[in-house]
Specification:
43% of the residues lie in helices and 0% in strands. The protein is built from two helices and no strands.
């Protein structure tokens, strides 16, 4: 219950902040490094974090 209250407060603050990413309407999308275009897998995450095979 406490985690939900904290999360809702943080999201509410971000939604009310005109400079937050939630209010930014630039069409930004994240660019994720993946071995297969269009798919980001756990293996990609481990490789990106330096914890997986090179």
């Amino acid at each position: 219950m406490g985690a939900r209250v904290v999360a809702e407060v943080l999201i509410g603050l971000a939604m009310d902040d005109p400079s937050s990413l939630l209010q930014d309407d630039t069409g930004w999308t994240p660019a994720l490094p993946s071995a297969t275009a269009g798919q980001f897998t756990i293996a990609d995450l481990l490789r990106f974090a330096g914890a997986g095979p090179a």
